[in-house]
Amino acid sequence: MLRFILGRLANGLLVMAVVSLLSFALFNFTGDPVNNLAGETATVAEKQQLRASLGLDQPLPLQYLKFVGRALQGEFGVSYRNLEPVAQLIASRLPATLELSAVAALLALGLGIPMGVYAGIRPRALGARALQIVSLIGVSVPSFVTGIALILVFSVGLNWLPSYGRGEVVQLGGWSTGLLGASGWKAIVMPAITLALFQLTLFMRLTRTQMMEVMKSEYIKFARARGLRERAVHFRHALRNTLIPIITVAGLQLGSMVAFSIITESVFQWPGLGLLIIQAITFSDVPVIAAYLLLVAALFVLINTVVDLLYVVVDPRLRVAR
Question: Which pLDDT tens digit goes with each residue over 241-263?
Answer without folding.
Answer: 777 778 878 877 777 787 778 88
